[in-house]
Amino acid sequence: FVPYVGLVSWQGSGQEMMEQLEQITGDLKAKVDYALDGLVAEVVDQNMRARLGATNHHNRWQIAIKEQGESAHATVLEVIWQTGRTGNITPVLVISPVKLSGASISRITAHHAGMVKSRGLGTGAEIEIVRSGEVIPKLVGVHTPSDNVELPERCPSCDNELVWREDFLRCLDAVGCPGQVVHRIRHFFWVLGNSDGMGIKTVERVVAAGHTRLSKVYALTMDDFLQMGFGPGQSKVLVRALEQSRLQPVEDARFLAALGVPDLGIGESRRLLGHLPLSSLSELDAERLEAIKGFGPITSKRISEGLQALWEEVEHLLGLGFALEITPVEAERLDVESPISGKKIVFTGSMSLGTRDEMKKEARRLGADVLSSVSKKTDLVVFGEKAGSKLQKARELGVEVLSESDYRNLLLK
To answer: How many other CB atoms sit within 10 Å of the CB of residue 6?
Structure first.
């Protein structure tokens, strides 16, 4: 393990970096005794960092510069089409097995039907692949396109007719398509993240038995699982997992994101629920959503339509009594009286008196705005053991920093 702040580095102007990137890369590689698959370039000027800001996922002033790495030639043997949870039909290329970075690769994704069509990715195509980051197989070139490119006209899961949506072929039967149902149910348990047991193979068997709605899945008994061919022990585990996922406390934003509405991840769900309670979203229209900072016209339309299509199922789920931790609505959060009310807080490092997620939830309940990165707008950084670059950056910017124990004492005032 190498702390980020301890990595070797080079500093100069953007123009110098672009002109000397190959030499800079070589010099840095020579200074370390482990393999590299790329570099990180970041802006060092603090004013520019503040101007660029950050998304809920990453800093805009910091990017990865990846190297292609080892590549190999392969022949496409077959194209398999799979149906995802949103109805998009994804092509997977079955290729003649090749060795890359010590692994045997026989399948790679082709992303969407538009790529298959435009690049001639059919049986017999000669392609070049790499393992991105030494992990994920990736198509980087087509040397010889195929004369035998076949695009599906019907969904491989439910046999309904497909339609084009931009570069994607899409199945519009969100309710009756088994492929969509399986991946949507699996997505729900994966994002909810508060129980084990409902893996993809289990979900496939459950859906094949006719249990295609989450509300029906939660109604399953041990006898139901036994009739599906699960053993007594596994059936008991699955019943317990379903119960645990309802009774184990979980953020309402995570619950909303788990529903799989396009463009509505955890960060977006938290932002939305900071303005409107979950129970009111059945009446949410695109215009009202677009009025909330961070939502554009296209995503607002998709989200509002997705919520309306799923709302009957959502009401069934809410009736099951999930232990949801409610996101404070912004107006209510401003009314909360606490030492951290209204403050923008970042947590970093390993905490000893609770997990960071628990501390974030508590801070939101006390009226704070919890951020993922440090900037000049940050009011407070709370650090635990092994705190790294965020703590260093806070000190560079003059942001107030408190240890975990000092922060706990602050809350008691």
So the answer is: 9
Q: List the structure tokens of 47.
A: 């004013």
Are the C-beta atoms of 368 and 410 separated by less than 8 Å?
A: no
- Which ranges of 274-355 does DSSP label H, i.e. alpha helix? 286-290, 297-318, 330-335
The 10s digit of each residue's pLDDT in 219-269 is 999 999 999 999 999 999 999 999 999 998 888 999 999 998 988 988 899
Q: Cβ distance 400 to 330 under 8 Å?
A: no
Q: Which residues contact 76 (CB under 8 A, 6 or more apart)?
A: 93, 94, 95, 121, 122, 123, 124, 125, 126, 127, 146
Which residue shows structure tokens 């990736």?
A: 138
Contact 344, 369 (CB under 8 A): yes
Structure tokens given for 61: 């002033």
Give the residues across from 132 on adjacent strands.
136
* Rounded Cα gap, residues 338 and 32, in angstroms: 48
Whether the CB-CB separation of 68 and 130 falls below 8 Å is answered with: yes
Number of Cβ within 10 Å of residue 12's Cβ equals: 11
First to last CA, the chain: 38
Inter-residue contact 372 to 346 (CB < 8 Å): yes
